[in-house]
Write a structure and sequence with these properties.
The chain is mainly alpha-helical and about 150 residues long. The chain has one domain (about 35-135). Helices cover about 40% and strands about 5% of the residues. The chain has a two-stranded antiparallel ribbon. Strand 1 and strand 2 form a beta hairpin. Helix 2 crosses helix 5. The longest helix is centred in the first third of the chain and has 17 residues, at about 10-30. The chain is globular and about 35 Å long. It starts with 11 loop residues before the first helix and ends in a 9-residue tail after the last helix.
Length: about 150
């Protein structure tokens, strides 16, 4: 009996370098739809919804109503710079998502985040999360637009 051949696998480091290289090339080349600051965090799975596509849960409406004019202005300007203000925007080959060009893991770990994928949520929900993140870490997640 002959031995079963094994398939050669690229080392994990080479695979990770290839993934990072593709993302870097897309950012440097100014891939269409990529946020101006390149997004934040690291990607990952998620598919939460908020009472239907694009709806704003009452909790987020209340938080948004209590948000200062200054923070609302910051959110509007940052979202416009990152994505043209489109809460369904996808950039960087699918890595950067929503009006603020979050990456899924950053979205999920940000204060006030409902989890899942930011494009499943309304602009107001995304803005509440972005403002809460800005309050926690400053504007560094948005180095160009923040």
């Amino acid at each position: 009996m002959s031995p079963i051949p094994t398939l050669a696998r690229p080392p994990a480091v080479a695979l990770a370098a290839a993934v990072v290289g593709v993302a870097l090339v897309a950012l440097v080349a100014g891939a269409p739809g990529a946020g101006a600051s390149g997004g934040i965090g690291t990607g990952g799975p998620g598919d939460a919804r908020e009472g239907g596509r694009g709806a704003t849960a009452p909790k987020y409406v209340r938080i948004w109503e209590r948000t200062s004019k200054r923070d609302k202005r910051w959110a509007r300007n940052t979202a416009e710079c990152e994505s043209g203000g489109d809460p369904k925007a996808i950039g960087g080959g699918g890595l950067y998502r929503g009006a603020f060009q979050f990456l899924k893991s950053t979205w999920r770990t940000s204060p006030k985040s409902p989890g899942g994928d930011p494009i499943r949520y309304s602009y107001k929900t995304q803005a509440v999360v972005a403002v809460a993140l800005k309050r926690r870490v400053g504007t560094s997640p948005w180095p160009v637009c923040g």
